[in-house]
Amino acid sequence: MTVESTVEEDLVPEVHAEELPGADLPVLGRIGAEAGADAVAEHLREAGRVVRRRDIQMIRAAGLGHIGGEFSVIDILVTLYLHSMNVTPQTVDDPERDRLVLSKGHAAAALYTTLAVAGFIPPAELSTFMQPESMLNGHPANTKIKAVEASTGPLGHGLPIAVGMAMAAKLDGSSRRTFVVLGDGEMQEGSNWEALMTAGNHKLAGLTAVIDRNRLQQGARVAATNDLEPLADKLAAFGWEVVEVDGHDHRALADAFAAVPAGSGRPTAIIARTNKGHPVSFMSDDVAWHHKVPTEQQVETALRELEDA
Ligand SMILES: Cc1ncc(C[n+]2csc(CCOP(=O)(O)OP(=O)(O)O)c2C)c(N)n1
Ligand SMILES: [Mg+2]
Fold it and tell me: Is residue 13 part of a domain?
């Protein structure tokens, strides 16, 4: 008797090292509010495009990755690293820097590409993604990259770590901010609700949780698995300020990040409405693209669509 697997998994990646892009990534760097709202929005739009282009090429070359959840979170990451956070490649050791924990660590390639475009890691490193001895593991490692504030991958750990960081800042009397980016499926983890309760109780105003609300998890819709709604009400009941934004609108994201810490002294939860696979037509809002690897033709189509994004 043969037992057929119902899970389509490529356990051995099909590597396409010959398709690796070169090291010629534009390092766009940070843009401050003094540049004006239009210039900031255009800078971040270009960064989002550059990051997505390289990300999909890296995943194709490595034969592994999580493209759907990367494309949903890229606009959040570029807004934070290239504009909103008070941290630069020169200040990664400064105790007063703002911190970001990417709790949904499976979106590692999006983080690495954003860090390269922001100037934190050399673009040439991107070509080593997922290769033996690379510092760019499938999930981000704090032991390998200084700008990675915490090693993540097992879901449900980034928010508790960020609560500790924000608590330390509060005890230091420091105004430094801590951001943590979570998946919405990840919000089903019980550890998050313990951390939310702690942050609310201790009024950790310097803490901001950004929830990538793409409504999909691995292999299913969040609502069909363990529905989060009414999410905003639940977060508010745990003592958080709650803001909802379009998670692909750089200007709305920048405004939301500029408004923390909230005057109320509460921590802030930003529910960022996103689409998995955004803005690629054949990936967007399709659960199949959680960790599917695109074909050469699909990469070409995506790159063409990104030209106009
Ligand atoms: C504790 C834990 N359980 C399972 C996984 C495997 N896993 C990786 S991503 C993922 C789905 C996460 O969904 P979501 O948080 O919504 O992420 P996104 O949609 O942003 O990709 C799962 C189950 C994991 N990394 N950690
Ligand atoms: Mg999700």
Answer: no
Number of helices (H), then strands (E), belonging to the chain: the values are 9, 5
| 20 in any annotated domain | no
Q: Does the Cβ of 191 fall within 6 Å of ligand 1?
A: no
Question: For residue 105, how far is its CA from the centre of ligand 1 (angstroms)?
Answer: 9
Q: Residues for the chain: how many in total? A: 309
Atom of ligand 1 nearest to the CA of 73: 20
CB 61 within 8 A of CB 111: no
Domains: count for the chain: 1
Distance 287 CA to ligand 1 centre (A): 12
How far is 210 from 269, CA to CA, in rounded Å? 6
Residue 147 within any structural domain of the chain: yes
Q: Considering Cα of 141, then 123, then 305, then 48, what sign does the dihedral take?
A: positive
184 lines ligand 1 (CB under 6 A): yes
Predicted confidence (pLDDT) per residue in 17-54, tens digit: 888 777 789 999 999 999 999 999 999 999 999 999 99
Q: Which domain holds residue 301?
A: 33-307
Note the pLDDT tens digit of each residue in 245-281: 999 999 999 999 999 999 999 999 999 999 999 999 9
**C-beta of 217 in contact with ligand 1 (< 6 A):** yes
Residue 292 CA, ligand 2 centroid: distance in Å? 15
